[in-house]
Give the backbone structure.
Amino acid sequence: MNRVKFNVNTEYAYIQNFKILQNTFAKHGIDRPVAVESLVKCKMQDNLEFLQWTKRYWDQNFPGGDYDAPARRKASGAPPPATQSNRAVGGASRRGTTPTTTGARTRTPIGAGGSVALQQENATLKETVAGLERERDFYFLKLRDIELLLQQAVEADPEIEKDDEGLISKVQAILYSTEDGFEIPAEAEAQDDLETF
């Protein structure tokens, strides 16, 4: 615990902490890989899955009794938590439960520098999403144009669609194929029935 840096907010500090966690897992024979690269990116799904696994592991292996995390941090030389008045005294009373805090939760204000950095990151992510949406729409329109050309060709000569080894049939198979587990929503099917071209 004395090597873990608490209250960090930089990527390199996250990486150091996760490396310590990896080494500790290896030392204690815990066969769980820590995906440091994905956890450091702070994506909700990756962190949630790891947190759920950690909670399950804790519930299965903790012998019971009180666990005083602030005292463990003090023993390691880490700075105390931001607010101690909101924390409940004592820990979980039985195995498999998580201690809760009493009183209203307060938000810790982020420094001006952190707020500006988050706003810049948010703006960058919005630009990326907008670019990806434009690209998606561009390729969708291309595929739609190909589909319309195929429909026109089939309307002009219905015999070309009957040839299973023909180019038209192969292109239609690619256009209308789906992945395993993908289902067209019922609403979309109803809209397709209403559309006329």
Summary: The helical segments are 11-27, 36-40, 44-61, 69-75, 112-156, 159-162, 167-176, 186-194. The radius of gyration is 28 Å.
